Structures are given as C-alpha cells and as structure tokens.
Amino acid sequence: MTAIKLKNLSIEQSAELLPDGLIMLGYRGSVAHNMYVPSNNPNSIDDKDILGVYIGPEEHYLGFGRQDVFERFIGEWDAVHYELKKFVGLLRKNNPNVLSMLWLDEMHYIFQSDIGRELIANRHLFASKMAYHSFSGYAHGQLKRMTHLNQEALADINRRAAILEAEGVSFEDGVPKLPAGAQTELVEKTRQYEALRSKYFSGYMGNKRKSFVEKFGYDTKNAAHLIRILRMGIEFLTDGRMHVNREDRHELLAIKNGEWELERVQKEAEKLFDLAREANVRSSLPSEPDHIAIEALCGRLLKSHFGWIKTN
To answer: Are 293 and 300 in contact (CB under 8 A)?
Structure first.
C-alpha cells in the first residue's frame, strides 16, 4: 500500500494509525459532514475521525479468524478500521456510521484501492428499509446521551479496567500498571484502555465538552448528531442515497454551538421521529439488503485481493 501521511502527523505516526491491507480510508464524523470546527477555535470539541476498511492476512479467512477491528488514537486523530467481512456485516445491518463511508464526497476519501472502489460502486446492494431501525435506534441513543455526558464512555472504560484487573493489571489513580513480563496481547489491551481514558477524561474531550454541558445544560454535540442522523435516515429511506456532506450544516452547527434551547432540540427530534416512521412506510426500498449479491461481492473482492483461483 502507498504510504499515507495524515496532516500534522509524521509518516511514522500515520502508519501507527493505519492497519495493513487497507483498501479504503475516509473521513467520518464532523469533517465528512462539513461541520468540523478546527482546534484553534475556542468552540471546538471535534476530533478528526477516520474510518478504514482492510483485508486481513490469508490466515484470517482460512484459519480461525484474526483481529477484525483496529482502533488507534493519536492527538485529535481518532481512527477506527474494520476488516472487510466485519465491515460488510455492519453494512448489511445498515449501520449509519459505516454506511456513510460508501457515500462520501470524493474529497473526503483519503485512500481507495481498486477493491475499495468496487465496494463503493456496489453500494446500492446495501440500501434497505432496515435503515429505519438502525438510524432511529442510533438517534434514540443520542437523545439519551444528550443529557448524560460520557456515561456510555465511562461504562466502557470501567468494563475494560475490570478485564485488565482480572488479567493481573493493577491501577493507581486510574493509571494501569502492567505486571512484569506481560504478553503482547495484554500490553495492547492496556494501551487501548489508556487511549480511551485519555480521550474522554483529560484535556480535550473531557474539560471542553464538559464545559459546554455546564454552559448550555445539555450536550450540544450529541444534539447535533441526533438531528443530523434523523434527517439522514429520512433522506435515505426516501431516495436510497446517503447525503453525508450536509447542506443543512449551518443549522446543525448552530445546534452544536448551543444556539438552540434544549426544548427546541427535543421538539425537532420528536417531529423527525414521526417523519422517519412515515418515510419508512412510504419507502420503496426493499425490506432487507440483497444478501445473496452481497455475499457474492464479498467473495469476489477477497479472491481478487489474494489472487485465489477456483480449481476443479
């Protein structure tokens, strides 16, 4: 794969964020939605989120499986990558975050291999009315978190800490201490725990986002996610396309910046939940994705990548 250098990171740091076998890499979140607020802005509470798709080593498919999710955090960069079959499985469920990757504006793709481009060219296979439940479910989660800052993150951090403790890691003021001679897998789990804890509970994400909640009485970033995801779901059910780069960015940024009262956000969400139900009833999309065609596509992409040849 051609070396990829991300802005303000060295080649070495960029490589640390990315897995081997990458076939697609693009921006997600605020950059992809045209809502990114740069870190030099006092109102910024944004990461630079990227999502990639990779094909694992041949043993992953011929053996008992390997790592299917690859996560890294460096500074404001938040990277999540999915192995191809894992990614396709999420696409089949119409997961909003991964589905958006197939409908990015060209400028928001950082890297595409020929296999990645073929996956994008077949994005119509995944469009279905399952989007109603996945988008509405995601929106309900944002509605809940809007007034409960980082509760989900805290639960995840506590869960990871309990797993580490069971494997012999001790903690001092939340900082993990590895036992002597710790195996590579435990070292990696500990590194991921530290990255997640740092992301949510120190400096950037902790203090700045918490100050927004204290100032406005609710999590304005979750509120903007809530309204955006409902609108995107309605649009997708209506025309079968994901409008990732938001034409309503100014209104969404106003919500994100705390210019809407909480009651106004809640009323808008209530209206959009009703419109989503109506859009689902009227939608001409199939009830489920074309599972047979998707399985054939996934097999074709893997065969192309590995050069597998069918024998008699």
So the answer is: no
What tens digit of pLDDT does each residue of 141-176 get? 888 888 765 556 667 888 888 899 989 899 876 688
- Residues 6 or more apart whose CB falls under 8 angstroms from that of 196 comprise 73, 153, 156, 157, 160
Q: Sketch the domain layout of the chain as residue ranges.
A: 1-127+289-312, 128-147+217-287, 150-211
Whole-number Å distance between alpha carbons of 274 and 242: 20
What is the reported pLDDT for 182?
86
Which CATH class for the 1-127+289-312 domain? alpha beta
In this structure, what token pair is assigned to residue 93? 């469920």
For residue 243, pLDDT over 70 is answered with yes
Give percent of the chain above pLDDT 70. 88
The pLDDT tens digits of the residues spanning 184-209 come to: 889 999 988 888 776 665 443 455 66
